[in-house]
Each structure stands twice: as structure tokens, then as C-alpha cells.
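Give me C-alpha cells for this 403-residue protein.
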Amino acid sequence: MVHGHQKHDSSLPLVVRSCDLNRTINSLCIYFMVVAGMFAIAAGVVLFNDTAIGWSACLASIATVLASLAITCHTALRTYAFVAWVVCVVVVAIAYPRSFLQIGSIKTVDTLTYLIQIAMFGMGATLTLNDFSRVLRLPKGVFLGIALQFSAMPCLGWTIATVLALPSEIAVGLILVGSCPGGVSSNVITYLAKGNVALSVTMTACSTLVSPVMTPLMMYLLAGTSVAINYVDMFRSILLTVFVPVVAGLICNFFLQKLKLPQSTTERYLATISMIAICAICGIIAANSSAAIQTVGMVLILAVFLHNAIGYFLGYLGAKWSGLNEADSRTIAIEVGMQNGGMAAMLATSVLKVPATAIAPALFAPVMNVTGALLASWWGHQSNLSIEDTSFSLDDHSGTVPE
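Here you go.
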């Protein structure tokens, strides 16, 4: 009797574990199908020319909007809503570029710099001085990540452009997006992947703050023979568009804490504003490059995908070879692979003044968000993190990831 009871108890965890595994697999499959379907629709829209879009563009736009709404409303998938809306906005912008390029008498391309400043201010407003003090506590991860960010990604962009024999202006755009700092959405993807959110926030902030020096330098070294690189102009533009808003946001957060306002609520609103700005940036960039994207087609999509995916691999491999734990390795992989495409597009149009160089950044944002979400889904369901590796808690920085 006792033995039978013990046998029943020992088998119960196996049944529960099996049910949990089935639910996890089902959820992951549903999500994968939704995202894969959205990506296929996006690729299909790219293949159409201006005269052939018609109903296909309409149906594709409706499908992505409905899919985004479904993901936003689904409790289990809600965390991926930001990724879904980025892809949705890009698809609609490619299908109907005129709707995104002008609002009344305002040309939306002219607002790109301001939107990036809003997004950067929102990021800065979720930071504290404690985020920068982590450089002293986590020096190896921070410096390794930044070193890979500004060496592997620019060189990888140059290599892929050379191997695929991309036109020089397109190649410059790929190198440019590789020379930019980490994207803001990397913090969300790191959280979903059970990485080290604190390290991700610190890396994004630090790479952004050193970008006024490193981005023009890497562009001068790798793309200086293809297009005229004015180091001073690029330095000034990045300083005003990225560096100053981040610092202003940091100062704003400092005073908000002094006023003892509810920090979680304030940061949630600021994060939401940043995400809306990022979606608008992606839409404007995609609309402005719509015709070129449809002309270049799958070759550029392949180049951008390889740039992003190999970036993840090199970041993870470099972190592992340096002896970092699993959570930190995932974080560095995501930080290295995900770039600030909005900043790259802004530099392409306002500093380089070569519209074709903005095409690669226009595609990089939706591609990296889709691949990042898929990678986070896979890593998030892995169970190979040891106790000392599970540094994905948001206790140290609860405002970074919006609910």
C-alpha cells in the first residue's frame, strides 16, 4: 500500500512535466507560425512592384494588423507585441508608402531626427547612475560586448557586402548599420531570452554614449573609399541626436526620483512612448525606401539576415570563449546582433545624404526584431541555466522592460 502510494507520487512529476512541456511546445509553435507568417507576408510584399501590389498589399496589411492585435491581446504572447507591431508598421509602410511620407504639409522624413531623440530620451529616462556603476561590477561583459559591437558588426557588414557583390551605396548602408550602437529593443529581447537584463541595459547605454566617436571612426575605416565620410559632421549629428537626449533622460529620471513619483508607472509610460517612436521611425524609413527595397528584393534581405544572425553567433561565441556564464553570453549575443537601425537611417539621409544607404537600415529593424523574438523564444524555453546563471531578474531594473 505504501509502496503503491510512493510509486504514484514519483510518477506525478513526470506527468506534470510532460503536460508543461506540451503546453510550452504548443505555445511556441503557435508563436512561430504567427511570426513566420508575418515574415513571409513581408517578404511577399517586397517582391511586388508598384503596379502589382493592389489587393495583395491590402490583404497583407490587414493580415499583419490582425496578427499584431491577436498577439497584443493574447496573454501568453503579449510580451512579443512590440516586435509584431514593428513588423506590421514596416509591411504597411512598404505597401502604402505615401501614407507614411507626408501628413498634411509635414514631410515625415524631416521628423526622423526628432523621433530618434524622443526614443533616446525615453531610453535615458529609464536609466539611473546605478546602471553605469555596473561597468565597475561587470567590466568584462561590458567591455567585451562593446568591443565586439564596434569591431565584429562593421567588419561583418563589409564582408557580406563584398561576398554578395552589393552595389556600393547599399554596401555602405550595411556597414553603417553595423557601425551603430545596440538597439533599444535588445533590452526587451534579453529579458525574454532569460539573459542578464542589467548587463543589457548597461551595454546599450554605454555603446550609445561611445557611438559619437566609434561610429564615424568605423565608417571612415571601412567605407571611406566608397562615400565621403565627414567625421566631424557625423560626430556632431550623433552627439545631438543620441548622446544629448540620453543624458537629458537620465537627468529627468534623477529629478523624478527626487519628486518621489511612482517610478514603475513613469518608466512604463516613457517606455511606451519610446516604442511608439521606434515604430514610427521604422515605418518612415521603410516607406522612404519602399521602391528601392522592392527593386533590390531578396538579395538585400539575405544580406541583412546574415548580418544579424552571424552577429548573434559571434557575440555568443566570443562571450563563451571569454568564460562568461550562459545568461551573460546570451545578453552579449543579443546586444551585438541587434543594432540601432533608426540612427543608421538618420545618418544616411542627414549626414551622408545618399538615400540608397538608408535601405539596409530600413530592413534591419524588422528583421532583427523577428529573429530576436525567435531566438528569445528558443532560449526562454531552455532549462540549461544554472543557479548562478539566472541573472535575468528585473529586480535591479524593473522599468527597463514594459509590461
